[in-house]
Amino acid sequence: MKNNSFLSSEEIIKSFLSYLDDSIYSYAYLLDGSWGSGKTFFVKEILIPSIVKHEKEKKDQDSEYKEKRILYVSLYGIKETEEISRLLYLELRKVMADKMTTGRFLKKHTPQIPTWLGTTSKIVSDVIKDSKGIDIENIINKISTGFSLKNCIFIFDDLERTSCNVNDILGYINNFIEHDQVKVLLIANEAEINTASI
Fold it and tell me: Which of 48, 52, 54, 55 lies 20 to 30 Å (CA to CA) from residue 64?
């Protein structure tokens, strides 16, 4: 007998892609499962490639469409929300590095590249010496003009394994959802979230 409370891999992919395309509501998407059930493997090996393919298809259909970029962060052991900012910053650097290697981006932004390289070293220095109050939006503005958080998908793994107050983490994440219209995937063992530092 099939347990109807669980979605198949295909149903999860379809549901999440529908969530990505929904611009009416602002909310996070939760992928819940027990430890060792393969959530992280599923996300990294199946869901993320499906998202990338979906975004590419949308871009192929509409050349003006801005493909969403994926930023993946594990919350395992996180003690303060500022640590999440640092991890997001590192993910943003990867996204920008990937973006800069595409011919179209290089052609359009070649005059900005020396400025980007110069400010990046300053930002890295600031991140290392001051871990408090990192402003992701400000970092993005320094890295590249025209880059919007709205074109990002944040994936936060291991929510139940954070050492930070879960309400603080969720409030931090909610700011991105409400103010920047960022699409967010939370990966957690929901049954264990209540045992985290609340």
Answer: 48
